[in-house]
Amino acid sequence: MGEVKKLIEEGKTFLGIEFGSTRIKAVLTDEDYNPIASGSHGWENRLDNGIWTYTLDDIWGGLQDCYKGLKDDVEKKYGIKLVGVGAMGFSAMMHGYMAFDKEGNLLVPFRTWRNTITEEASDKLTEVFGYHIPQRWSIAHLYQAILNKEEHVSKVDFFTTLAGYIHWQLTGEKVLGVGDASGMFPIDSKTCDYNKKMVEQFDELVASYSFDWKLSDILPKSLPAGERAGVLSEEGAKKLDPSGDLKAGIPVCPPEGDAGTGMVATNSVGVRTGNISAGTSVFSMVVLEHDLSKAYPELDLVTTPSGEQVAMVHCNNCTSDLNAWVSLFREFAGAIGKDIDDDTLYGTLYRKAMEGDADCGGLLAYNYFSGESITGFNEGRPLFVRRPDDKFNLSNFMRTHLYTALGALKAGNDILMKEENVKADFFFGQGGFFKVRGVGDRVMAAALNTPIKLMETAGEGGPWGQAILAGFMMQKNDGETLEKYLADKVFARGKVETCEPNKEDVAGFDDFMKDYNAGLAIERAAVDSLK
Q1: Contact (CB, 8 A) for 70 and 37
Q2: pLDDT tens sequence across 276-312
Q3: What's the N-to-C CA distance of the chain in angstroms?
Q4: How far apart are CA 422 and CA 203, in angstroms?
Q5: Alpha carbons 319 and 304: distance in angstroms, whole number
Q6: How many Cβ atoms from other residues are within 10 Å of residue 62's Cβ?
Q7: Residue 14 has what DSSP assignment?
Q8: pLDDT per residue over 26-75, tens digit each?
Q9: Bridge partners for 412 per DSSP
Q10: Distance (Å, rounded) from C-alpha 521 to C-alpha 219?
Q11: How far apart are CA 256 and CA 468, in angstroms?
Q12: pTM score, two decimals?
């Protein structure tokens, strides 16, 4: 403990803070990336006038409470006040739309990745670029606002992601890590910058509107991992720590998206490596060894934090509906006077699911808490259905909800692996879906028919990955790649558990997906009937 205390006092630590969908988390590490303190703040997005959003008060109040939790943890564990770190970085949910005028005022409420309101823009940009532009991407939000003739567009001086916004406010720098930038606009991996031809195509597309800006004027600068991205300003230090204890001048690495920090946290930045982040949303990523033959609406092309091409399957829904069902069981337990902690509740229900039939006994569910563009839904409509002769019991019920949490993910990965012959030797997993070992990893291995690896450190997730990126900026050797740095200095001694696909589970999941795919038309009709 004395050694750690000295490191903190000397500022030889690295701090990562990540804004997830339901939690803001801070992780402080030593120079070898061992977590030594943490803080967190729970939050939820809200549906405001049809837009999924977080307010600026949500953002800053949450960040300050998260950092205060970290400070309190340091003081409790080591008896000292946290006044500085060696380097820090901020990451957040990718995509979305935060647009500002010349005075730095937010022009419209933050539009998060969860919104499925840009279908027209997404389709048009995909056609113009010959490159799939998903609805949640920042450029789709900007172009949809133009198509909608929204008054604010002419006033846009800068637009960015949530991570880019936080970094700008704390350092004054309008920059973005290339991984997060690749969820705003397509990236040229050779230059780690926005695709020049597509930037020109966009400017031509909107030329008739006669805006005062060109696209390159209002995008944040794209930076690869390891680049310097400014320092914490005096104003930024006070915004992060209103008590005034935190000192300015701390180096800050490029802000990244949660996909990039997930790749770092799972050592998945090399070719044929993959990672999966499964929580409120779920996405899988594979670093490509060859280009795809064509654009697919189900597949996104983004980059690692150092700019390599990555195929992503991103689904808006994963555990939200599953958690809602678990909460129902918690409510029942409370009604009969039983207070059950989360570990017991989730552990019991998840393990019970593994006693069920491999094909869920014919039960079927859709977990669309919000829209799901992979399968063509613009609105959320959770649904559970069964036939009178299906095997309806607790095991099959829970297994069904674990399976459907990955239904859209499997649909996208089947295209990637079966039609494009993309190979992944394994996927590293992280996120709440994997909390119960032997369940989440087993179901995921069945869904993708690929080994799933879990690390001891995976529970630290994105903020830990961002702390590593802060350390990489400070400690890398000249010419040292992020892939080599992670292999040699971060994960050389890491403990890994591997779950191989079970043949019966794989066949059962495939059978479940036959009903899942057949039922999509019925689900769409049900949604349409309610409009």
Answers
A1: yes
A2: 989 888 989 999 988 899 888 889 999 999 999 999 9
A3: 60
A4: 34
A5: 25
A6: 18
A7: E
A8: 999 999 999 999 999 999 999 999 999 999 999 999 999 999 999 999 99
A9: none
A10: 39
A11: 12
A12: 0.82
